[in-house]
Amino acid sequence: MPNFPIVDTHVHLYDVTRLSYAWLSNVPKINHSHLLADLDAERGPVVIDKMVFAEVAVDPGRHLEEAAFVQEMADRDPRLAGMIAHLPLEKGKAVEADIPKLQKFRTLRGIRRLIETERNPAFCLEAPFLEALRLLPKHNLSFDICIKHWAMAYAIELVKRCPEVSFVLDHIGKPDIKNGLREPWWSQIAELARLPNVVAKLSGVVTEADHTKWTPDQVKPYVAHVIDCFGFDRVMYGSDWSVSRLTHRYPQWVAILDEVVAGTSDAERRKLYRDTAIRVYRL
What we know:
It is a single chain. This protein has about 280 residues and is of the alpha/beta class. It has a single domain (about 5-280), classed as TIM Barrel, CATH 3.20.20.140. It contains nine helices and eight strands. It has an eight-stranded parallel β-sheet with strand order 1-2-3-4-5-6-7-8. It is globular and about 50 Å long. The protein starts with 5 loop residues before the first strand and ends with a helix.
């Protein structure tokens, strides 16, 4: 385990008694509230200095309520230092009216609009989406890309079309670890890494393997490849808790990353577990 406190850049917190999340009905194992006290009960020996909340696909129209809920938690626990909020970018420039409403929450650092759940991921390249996305830099907001491996080409094109936007690739682009596939994801990660306005989040990886039969050795090559392509200045740790509970406990992911980066310098490990996140999300 790291011998210093870490920054977790991808934490999902939700209260099913306060807000509604239709997608949870498909994952009964985590279909109940997950709050900071629950995370503390599961993190074991891992010391978390700061956390970034990632939007949890709250039901449509309730993203401002979700942001208010997160800020309330952050006001009680200063470790919750950043928030990646939902914004329906497909509405185009009209979404700019929501940005000041989100900016009143001091933890706001970026925006995420899920792409992986869309039948046609090309929607993120349509004019309204791009118009809304290009509004983010003037508000000092980044964009988290959440996409499956089979749609990586859209992520690459999105980053190319918006060079002024700061992007974060969630979950290393969700490669098909379960079936042991590497291409074209393997080559596409290298292509994406050549674009300077994107960093990669080492999160949500184990859940792309077989949920009952996965092994660390199946997962590690994909993580190592991302680090090789992006370098330590452009990768950062994320747990993807509570979704990660579908496959593993919190300390297991840290242990896997420790194995991947064994032999690297203390400075490089600090970039992975702290420094990149603090820079990218302005923590």
